[in-house]
Amino acid sequence: MARIYISSTYSDLKEHREKIYQTLRRMRHDAVAMEDYVATGQHPPLDKCLADVAKSDLYVGIFAWRYGYIPFDGNPQQKSITELEYRQAHETGKPCLVFLLHEDTPWLSKFMDKVTGDGKGGKQIEELRQQLGTTKLVSFFKTPLELANLVAVAVQQWEQERVDEQSQASTINNYTKLAEKIGVVVQGGEVNINDFRFE
């Protein structure tokens, strides 16, 4: 079971978040999301969000057309919580799965910063989406169900890669121990299976 942090703006992606949350729970993962925070009627504290990202095994970021809430305190660069969560995941070396709403998807204008004037008239979310699209391998979605399916597949692939890496590390460790037992000199801390001759 992995601890997976779900990051996005809230009101525009509420249904999408719920589908992902349910999917990850069915996959027996510990899904961490702002919905888990105590309902106070206020935005979740930035420190809590960033700490939860840092404690997670995997970050899932979902981006539509809202930049999101920008906390004033402890935020000299004036970035949104959603962007700061992504930055925290990246800086702490967390694997990041990024999903962008497809540009052709019909979307309510009240959830688009370029229409409402929020996020510097939509400039901040457009810049963030562009940066994510050029620096990360991203997937595009149109519906909540499609997004949940994409997340499920991506998480399964991530899990398999983790198992493969652990298996490879275990195999190398076993060969290293065997090499030490039979007196094979290990150079650079690595053992090549071709060094062994079984007769």
Q: Main attributes?
A:
about 10% strand, alpha/beta, single chain, 5 strands, 5-stranded parallel sheet
Spell out the blueprint of helices and strands:
Elements: E1 3-7, H1 14-26, E2 30-32, H2 46-55, E3 58-63, H3 81-91, E4 96-101, H4 113-116, H5 118-121, H6 123-135, E5 138-141, H7 144-182
Parallel strand pairs: 1-2, 1-3, 3-4, 4-5
Offer a quick outline of the entry:
It is built from seven helices and five strands. The protein is an alpha/beta fold and 199 residues long.
Explain this structure to me?
With 199 residues, the chain is α/β, with parallel strands linked by helices. It has one domain: Rossmann fold (3-Layer(aba) Sandwich), CATH 3.40.50.10140. It has 7 helices and 5 strands, in the order βαβαβαβαααβα. It has helices spanning 14-26, 46-55, 81-91, 113-116, 118-121, 123-135, 144-182, and strands at residues 3-7, 30-32, 58-63, 96-101, 138-141. A 5-stranded parallel β-sheet has the order 2-1-3-4-5, with helices on both faces. Strand 1, helix 1 (14-26) and strand 2 (30-32) form a beta-alpha-beta unit. The radius of gyration is 21 Å and the shape is elongated. 29% of the residues are buried.
